[in-house]
Amino acid sequence: MAEIKLEITNKVGLHARPAALLVQTANKFKSVITAINGDTSVNAKSILNVLALGADKGSILTIKAEGEDADQAIQAFKELHANNFGEKE
């Protein structure tokens, strides 16, 4: 299992557009990918689940990947975070 912790830095948190990018990234991989915010853990391949995390600015999102391409998935999430989930601010 591979894991990464990402701080949400977008002004409005993980709203629809960045959440959709997270889900699209998760769906590129065969691994089981879980997103965790606080005590809430969800399937990262579901937009409704990811939105339900309620990840506001400053939240620490943990992404866990388990499967044959887990390391590649975590690398993709690192890149997504480095690009601020496609947000300018």
From TrEMBL:
GO terms for cellular component: cytoplasm. It is found in: Cytoplasm. Its main location: cytoplasm. Belongs to the HPr family. The keyword Ion transport does not apply. InterPro entries: HPr, HPr-like, HPr-like_sf, PTS_HPr_His_P_site, PTS_HPr_Ser_P_site. Keywords: Cytoplasm, Phosphotransferase system. It comes from Candidatus Cryosericum odellii. Residues 1-88 form the HPr domain. One of its GO terms (biological process) is phosphoenolpyruvate-dependent sugar phosphotransferase system. It holds the Pfam family PTS-HPr. This is HPr family phosphocarrier protein.
